[in-house]
Write a structure and sequence with these properties.
976 residues; alpha/beta; Rossmann fold; 6 domains; seven-stranded parallel sheet; six-stranded mixed sheet; elongated; disordered C terminus
């Protein structure tokens, strides 16, 4: 086997092509069946162009040999009779092996299911590295033997390797990995199967083989070349990273050393890039020669590319600088430029900016399938199952375009569902969701004040559709096993298939590029029940979800790119090997990312990798240095970008490799460092006064107590929230809020008074027992879901005796419960002929013996706070507002539902509003006047007090605190 090495750079491919033709010309008639093998498909076009150019330069154009990767070449062979074990089957086997080993999980820190599957993936990766490094040819020497003999061959090879490595000093980590490798390896694993396929391919090679690659072949590929060399001519062509010095430089003093070319300069700056044998050859050449190669360069070569190092303050600035440079190059007429995504986050942001600019992009980085919207929708379904109907997961799933895409009225139904979830603070629970969104359940929310009849009908239709959505999802979730129930893998796969069909996700995924790849990945799981381990394996729901997540993490997604002449290629640093571009931007050149190192998972440390003779951190760093040097050698215009501040504000520095290059350029009088100037947007602030808009056409037709209270609190807040509809949705919180307890107490009291009236309960003991029974039932369901409800329950239990006593005292005064939670609507005549409709819900209505009515408003507040409401009745109009809804109401009171001091029951519970009729008459007159003024285009100034501004969502609109003057606008004379 012939081996040649050429220096990396623009001359490498022409030299390699000339050498390949020279080699093929001496192979005789066999050259017609020649194959040129390259590591990746991206390198094929460049190699073909170089071969064609070399043939034309020699004056003898000819047919090119076949240029391909080993993977493509293997497709020429018929598949093996024994199928290769899938990645999912192997991963499941490792997970089952370590699941019962609690000591191992503790040692690895894999206490969660996701960490356990990560441990399984790491063990599998290291086992494959061991197979690639140490598996000898005897393990796969005969392709015609049966499965048992093949397994025995493999185990024999593993035992020989184990015995060989055991002669070294191995730590505990290495011994555990070795034990797993020996126990989990099988003849149907991908690496032994690939070695057998390559052995067959070597036997069928009919012509010369040329290996052309920037890195040495892997041990498996090296074995293939050795076997092929026994039958056909084989030549290896690679890079020369030894940096051998010219003989003329030997013996010269350091100050007399000649300036080398760009290759010598980079290798002198980055000795990490040299191959290990370079230092040995330097020592053999003599001290002077060794010193020549170790000395830092004194000058820059005349022939060198244009290199710029751009530092940015933040992530966004770096992405903008990279995207701007690429677009500028395209506008200059360059046809093929590249973005090296050494910082994947910055590269993603730059890609979004390029898409906004309409630049054609081809992405070769291969994002993980788990990062796509399709995978996110699937994982959200499992979040919904694991978290028992969590409403955040529910809304995320429904908003995905892959879930029930053809559901009638889908958008309006989801909007109605979200409004009620946020308004009522529903955090989750399938049973609670089904109760709240049952089509037969009585609606507990008030209608929109500004809605007309058509809008209310549409709202009711949307709510019914939302109920159907919830019921369908709840029914599908109910079909899945819950908790820690162990089920065979086949059961989970069947349930997953059924869910994809029930939620119409399969058709939606099939119409999406990422969705099709997701369906293909799920389809490959169908073989798990037929696998030896998969047939007997059992998982619970959390383990099955973690398995899917691990598999989606291992699958790369490459989105299709449109064809076009001008193109920006996004690729990893190692993807630039043996390729040239009209310009290259490398993002992520700070010391935190260049060189980059893989996280040492669990305790698979760098030391363990050295013990097992696997690729360690230093080897990876050296290869990154070579890859970066190759980018600078192959391309004439390179921009290197980095961030001065990390995501948490921590200071960063440019990579040490770049710093050395920058220092050399500065000493030579050709600085390469620059800063990305942030894009500045100049604005001119015009300081104004208090805003006071007018919008007669937006005045609501329906009014509630809450809407009118908002108008009186701050007219501008009413304008933004009610008239413009800009009130934001409330945040759903898992924390139990006082409002939730208030709604619960309302339900308890409504049920209690109904039962007491229907059953004719007269004695205090019977009433107290009944009220306690209802309270235990209602609070019990809540306490099972949220332990924070226990404190509220105990406080409520202290209220029960005094509440029953107060009710008895009230009946003794001639007032009896007549109804609760009553929705009422009244039309008030207006001077312009357009009636004013007021609506609301009355907490409680009592009846006197003479037929008059009293309205009561429950409050989860103390009596002392309620007494202060008497003086603020013109600001909080809720109680007199109830008087507008019922013409027969003559008395109004607030009822405290908090614990109080000892004293008469009435003093503990009830606070009456004096002159209730006068308050109602004033409210009716004031409401008519205010609404008429709004209908006549009265302004709505932002003069709310500090209390109104604390939680106001319109603060960013009115800009209070930034006014030139706080005086009312001239046209505003009072409240709107």
């Amino acid at each position: 086997m012939t081996s040649l090495q050429f220096r990396p750079g623009p001359d490498f491919l022409p030299q390699a092509a000339a050498a390949a033709w020279y080699f093929l010309d001496r192979c005789g008639a066999q050259q017609a069946a020649a194959h040129v093998v390259v590591p990746t498909a991206a390198q094929i076009p460049g190699v073909r162009q170089a071969l064609d150019a070399a043939a034309r330069a020699a004056g003898a154009p000819r047919l090119l040999p076949r240029v391909l990767t080993l993977g493509h070449w293997l497709l020429d062979l018929p598949p093996e009779t024994q199928p290769v074990r899938s990645h999912a089957a192997r991963l499941l086997a490792v997970q089952q092996a370590i699941r019962a080993q609690n000591w191992l999980r503790r040692a690895f820190g894999a206490q969660t299911e996701a960490a356990a599957w990560g441990l399984a993936q790491t063990l599998l990766t290291v086992s494959d590295e061991l197979s690639a490094r140490w598996l000898d040819d005897d393990a796969i020497r005969d392709d015609e033997i049966d499965g048992d003999d093949r397994a025995a061959l493999l185990q024999g090879a593993l035992e020989r390797t184990y015995a060989h490595l055991s002669t070294r000093f191995l730590g505990e980590e290495a011994r555990i990995v070795m034990a797993f490798w020996q126990a989990l390896s099988g003849p149907d694993d991908p690496l032994p199967a690939r070695r057998r396929m390559l052995q067959r391919l070597a036997m069928h090679a009919g012509g010369p083989v040329i290996w052309l690659g920037p890195t040495p072949p892997t041990p498996i590929d090296e074995a293939f070349l050795r076997q092929a060399a026994e039958l056909v001519p084989v030549m290896r062509i690679g890079y020369d990273w030894t940096a051998q010095a010219d003989d003329a430089a030997t013996g010269l003093a350091e100050e007399d050393l000649p300036a080398g070319d760009w290759y010598d300069t980079l290798l002198a700056l980055w000795p990490e890039a040299r191959l290990p044998g370079a230092a040995d050859s330097a020592e053999r050449a003599g001290p002077a020669d060794s010193a020549a190669r170790r000395a830092p360069p004194r000058a820059l070569p005349a022939a060198r590319p244009r290199v710029r190092v751009i530092g940015s303050a933040r992530f966004e600035d770096e992405a903008a600088a990279a995207a701007s440079q690429l677009v500028q190059w395209l506008n200059e007429g360059r046809r093929h430029v590249a973005l090296v995504a050494h910082d994947r986050v910055v590269a993603r942001r730059a890609r979004a900016l390029l898409a906004r600019a309409g630049a054609p992009v081809r992405d070769e980085t291969g994002w993980k399938l788990s990062t796509t919207r399709a995978a996110a929708a699937l994982m959200r379904w499992f979040d919904l199952l694991n978290q028992d109907g969590d409403t955040a997961a529910l809304l995320d799933l429904l908003k995905s375009p892959f879930c029930l895409p053809d559901f009638p009225g889908r958008g309006a139904a989801i909007a109605a569902l979200e409004r009620q979830i946020r308004r009522d603070g529903i955090s989750g629970g399938w049973r609670r969701l089904q109760q709240r969104f049952s089509p037969d359940a009585r609606r507990e929310t008030r209608p929109d004040d500004a809605a007309g009849e058509d809008a209310r009908d549409a709202g009711q239709a949307a709510r019914l559709a939302a109920c159907e959505l919830v019921q369908r999802l709840a029914a599908e979730a109910g079909a899945w096993p819950r908790g820690r129930t162990q089920k065979p893998v086949s059961t989970w796969l069947e349930r997953l298939d059924a869910t994809l069909d029930a939620l119409a996700m399969r058709a939606a995924l099939a119409a999406d590029d990422a969705g099709r790849q997701l369906l293909d990945a799920l389809a490959r799981l169908a073989e798990l029940p037929h696998d030896e381990t998969g047939a007997a394996a059992t998982l619970d729901l959390a383990e099955f979800r973690s398995m899917l997540s691990a598999l989606l993490e291992s699958v790369a997604y490459k989105e299709p790119s449109a064809s076009g002449a001008a193109r920006i290629t996004i690729l990893p640093l190692n993807g630039a090997r043996m390729r040239r571009f009209d310009g290259v931007v490398v993002v992520g050149c700070d010391d935190a990312q260049l060189p980059s190192s893989a996280a040492e998972l669990m305790f698979f440390s760098n030391q363990m990798r050295r013990e097992l003779a696997l690729e360690d951190r230093e080897i990876r760093f050296a290869q990154q240095a070579r890859d970066l040097a190759e980018v600078l050698l192959n391309n004439d215009d390179v921009v290197l970008t980095w961030q001065r501040l990390g995501a948490r504000g921590e200071p960063r520095h440019v990579s040490g490799w770049i710093e050395r290059l920058s220092a050399l350029c500065s000493r030579a009088g050709a600085p390469i460092e620059a800063s990305a100037l942030p894009v500045l947007h100049e604005t001119f602030a015009e300081v104004g006064g208090m805003p006071a808009p007018a919008a007669a056409e937006l005045v609501p037709a329906r009014w509630s107590a809450q809407a009118y209270n908002m108008l009186r609190r701050c007219p501008y807040q009413f304008f933004a929230g009610r008239m413009l509809g800009l009130a934001g949705l409330e945040v759903v919180s898992d924390d139990l809020e006082k409002r939730d307890i208030g709604e619960l107490l309302h339900r308890i009291l409504l049920r209690y008074h109904r039962d007491a009236a229907e059953e004719g309960l007269r004695h205090d003991d019977a009433r107290l027992a009944r009220l306690r029974e209802i309270s235990d039932h209602e609070f019990g369901a809540l306490m099972r879901e949220d332990g924070n409800a226990i404190g509220y329950y105990r406080r409520w239990c202290e209220v029960l005796p005094s509440y029953v006593a107060w009710q008895a005292e009230r009946e003794a005064q001639g007032w009896f419960w007549d109804g609760g939670e009553i929705d009422a609507t009244v039309d008030l005549p207006m001077p312009d002929g357009q009636p004013l409709r007021v609506n609301g819900r009355i907490d409680r209505l009592d009846r006197a013996r003479d037929g008059s009515r009293a309205v009561l408003d429950y409050k989860t507040q103390s009596v002392l706070r309620l007494k202060r409401k008497v003086g603020d009745v013109e600001e909080d109009c809720q109680l007199p507002f109830y008087g507008l809804l019922r013409a027969d109401v003559r008395v109004g009171s607030w009822v405290a539902l908090e614990g109080t001091r000892d004293g008469p029951p009435a003093a503990q519970r009830e606070v009456g509003l004096p002159d209730f009729d006068a308050a109602v008459a004033w409210l009716e007159r004031q409401l008519r006047e205010d609404v008429m003024r709004l209908r006549q285009d009265a302004p709505l100034p932002a003069f709310g007090d500090a209390g109104a501004c604390v939680y106001c969502t319109a603060r960013g609109l009115c800009r209070k605190g930034f006014w030139e003057s706080t005086a009312l606008p001239p046209q505003v004379g009072g409240r709107a």
